[in-house]
Design brief:
single chain; alpha+beta; 6-stranded mixed beta sheet; 6 helices
């Protein structure tokens, strides 16, 4: 486990976000989002055969023009994640499928979001394709205290390599919150045959949460990411124990609001005409009003903006991705971003 300590500032004891919401009558609301950026690679081949595809000489002819177009498209999408109560967009944005920190540095400097001055947390994972998870955050709303990275080890499969789980702990709305950013193993080989890998990943997330609560029993924990499973699948519902109904969730258990969203036919990615909701943001019982939380979960939504849909061809009505069938579509991602909203209930 690799640990990075960041020196806490005196300001961590303040209720951050007040500068963004100066009217004391308005609720203090914080957006927490997740977005699979779908193969955000730079144009330099640093990873042999796995990276060749995303280089000027590769099959996708991935050049500077295409790279910067994708950066600007993703920044435009993030810029639209604003609401009346979150005028500076999400306080925290977990991301996946990024090659390196420089890609995220380019993203936060893109013209549509540079005014937010988002900061980047990144860690190089052992994934064979060279893709990682990361976290963007607004330093006016969230103050990072600590970052740890956790490797998924499968007994008997020591050569298996996937993305590390990144746990970022900080101050949000005056409370300590930890965000565990994930990109669980894929369904390669079939959903059932590969389920044990995601079940192991879910167990690792739960172990991280338990270790956090051993130190701070009342802190909030958010597990987010492209989980490559739906809310009702075994990894989420059993291994992690993320429940469908808020009323059944104890302080050190998890509530999964996306279960009901998928029941309504709303998903984040589509395959063969069927929607899945892999991009989940799951909250601990310590973030629920029923358990006496000060910073409380309120609602969630899939940010399926109209411009993110493909409008023609066989993929009409699906997320407009960067490539399809080898052709460059100049799109965004094959996943829609998701977001939850937390509100300070007592000041």
């Amino acid at each position: 486990m690799k640990r990075i300590f960041l020196l806490p500032l005196l300001a961590v004891l303040m209720a951050f976000g007040a500068s963004a919401q100066s009217d004391p009558k308005q609720p203090l609301v914080y957006g927490v989002a997740f977005y699979n950026l779908e193969n955000l690679f730079d144009t330099i081949n640093n990873n042999g055969q796995y990276d060749l595809e995303f280089s000027p000489n590769g099959a996708r002819q991935w050049n500077g023009s295409k790279y910067w177009s994708k950066i600007n498209n993703l920044a435009y999408c993030i810029s639209k994640m604003v609401t009346k109560n979150t005028p500076m967009g999400p306080a925290i944005i977990g991301v996946s499928e990024i090659e390196n920190k420089s890609c995220l540095d380019d993203l936060v400097r893109a013209k549509d979001i540079r005014q937010w001055r988002l900061q980047v947390v990144h860690h190089d994972s052992p994934d064979r394709r060279g893709v990682d998870v990361g976290l963007l955050y607004n330093p006016r709303l969230f103050k990072v205290l600590d970052v740890t990275n956790h490797r998924l080890v499968i007994p008997g499969y020591e050569s298996f390599r996937t993305r590390d789980q990144m746990c970022v702990t900080g101050i949000l709305g005056g409370d300590t919150v930890s965000v565990i950013v994930n990109h669980w193993p894929s369904r390669l080989g079939g959903q059932e045959r590969s389920s044990y890998l995601r079940e192991a990943a879910a167990s690792l997330s739960k172990q991280i949460a338990d270790s956090l609560w051993a130190i701070r029993p009342n802190q909030g924990v958010i597990i987010m990411g492209d989980l490559n499973d739906d809310p009702q699948d075994k990894s989420c519902a059993v291994s992690l124990g993320a429940q469908r109904d808020e009323k059944n969730v104890g302080p050190h258990q998890f509530y999964n609001p996306w279960w009901k969203i998928l029941d309504r036919g709303i998903g984040t990615l589509a395959y063969k005409g069927q929607w899945n909701l892999f991009d989940q943001i799951i909250v601990s019982g310590t973030l629920l009003n029923k358990n006496g939380a000060r910073l409380c979960y309120r609602t969630c939504k899939v940010n399926n903006f109209d411009f993110l849909f493909d409008t023609e061809g066989q993929r009409q009505g699906y997320p407009k991705r960067t490539f399809a069938a080898g052709a460059w579509l100049n799109g965004y991602s094959d996943h829609f971003p998701t977001e939850i909203f937390l509100q300070v209930t007592r000041r």
